[in-house]
Amino acid sequence: MSQSSAAPDTPENTPPGDAARVTVVMPTYNEAANLPRMAEAVLALPLPALQLKIVDDSSPDGTGELADELAEKYRVPGERPRMTVLHRTEKDGLGRAYVAGMSEALEEDAEFVVQMDADGSHPVEAVVRMLAAARAEDAGLVVGSRYVEGGQLDEEWGRHRVLLSRFANAYARAVLGSDIRDITAGFNLWSAATLRDIDLTTLDSAGYSFQVELKYRATRAGHRAVEVPIRFEERTEGASKMTLRTQWESALVPLRLRMRGDR
Length: 263
Ligand SMILES: Nc1nc2c(ncn2[C@@H]2O[C@H](COP(=O)(O)OP(=O)(O)OP(=O)(O)O)[C@@H](O)[C@H]2O)c(=O)[nH]1
Ligand SMILES: [Mg+2]
Fold this sequence. Notes:
Elements: E1 2-3, E2 22-28, H1 35-43, E3 51-56, H2 63-73, E4 83-87, H3 94-107, E5 112-115, H4 126-136, E6 141-145, E7 152-153, H5 159-176, E8 188-191, H6 192-197, H7 210-220, E9 225-229, E10 231-232, H8 244-260
Bound molecules: guanosine-5'-triphosphate and magnesium ion.
């Protein structure tokens, strides 16, 4: 594992149009207030072959229908769609939503898959730097990391929340013997080969601990992980979906993985 440069995501540092087939998988549950600007920002990246895939679990606030409208807005007749929407009937956890979206991206021949929240917490421009790091360092996984040099947390995060996040990371790293500094990060870029090596259909985690499990499996399968620093922003619109149940799962999954595998 190594760390990549902290160069800012300014236009000068961004290479011109790159034909990489990147699919950004973005799960949504009640994110209507955030989705239009997120779609605009993702599709404005200097990656003309990039696709945005929304995975919506029948959000009561109409996010799914809004996503369909946006997909239509960004559609160019005769061209591969820039935005697609996967509608699921049930809200059964972030991990399962990601498995569905990532599997579809692989079937559609993506070369790289990015995981990104819809609430604006993950800096969209960093995708370009993450892709560059994957190529330059032959990494199967690039973590958008809060906890390497140059990484930052929104100052709005209270002391309690910072400590909880730090603890969750330290705990999962210690239990699993991993050297990934931000092993709970939800902003990651994967090579298709790495995801194919991890059997997505057999993951233990239904919820947020999916982030840890996927990274653990990838590095155990011999794929190289690199971390690039990002600044994590607090969500400004909509509500958090974190529940007590998912927090418990986050605590238990590292132990279960550790007990099952010989690391
Ligand atoms: N499809 C789907 N998306 C989900 C589900 N749970 C959360 N999400 C989405 O996953 C992303 C992360 O969820 P958040 O509620 O922001 O969770 P968080 O970032 O840990 O919490 P905050 O920091 O409080 O925002 C957002 O885009 C959510 O809309 C789910 O069960 N299904
Ligand atoms: Mg969030």
